[in-house]
Design goal:
single chain, 132 residues, mainly beta, SH3 type barrels, OB fold (Dihydrolipoamide Acetyltransferase, E2P), 2 domains, five-stranded antiparallel sheet, 1 helix, 8% helix
Length: 132
């Protein structure tokens, strides 16, 4: 597991962050000003990359947060099973199965023959993000 540490105030829109050990993408961040006796606070609105759930943590601006390394890769479509898709990585020629949602399944059936699929490897979990 490869992680990078940054402070909460260094987060920007579209950056990745680990919230409760779940990789998320930042959709909105509000940083309050420092008070007379306090530090700045960050309110982060983020959406889980794998589950799609919204998370809103509030933390001090100086708190260190983990940033997951997201590997964006391309693969060749091989086979559509009940709840999974078999794909082959375009660079390493490794084949593996990835769980897919119903809407991705419908898109695969609709397009018929597929050229390539973009998948993300996030902390060892693979998800399909786009179909070409």
């Amino acid at each position: 597991m490869t992680l990078k540490m940054i402070t909460a105030t260094e987060l920007r829109l579209g950056s990745f962050v680990m919230i409760n050990n779940i990789p998320c993408i930042v959709k909105k961040i509000d940083v309050s000003k420092t008070g007379k006796h306090g530090a700045s606070k960050c309110r982060i609105e983020a959406v889980g990359l794998i589950d799609g759930k919204k998370r809103i943590p509030i933390m001090p601006g100086t708190q260190r947060v983990n940033v997951p390394m997201v590997d964006k890769r391309r693969a060749q479509f091989l086979n559509l099973n009940d709840g999974t898709v078999t794909i082959m990585d375009a660079e390493t020629y490794e084949t593996f199965e990835v769980a897919v949602s119903d809407e991705i399944k419908e898109e695969i059936k609709e397009k018929g023959k597929l050229e390539q699929i973009e998948y993300w490897d996030i902390e060892g979990k693979k998800i399909i993000k786009r179909i070409f």
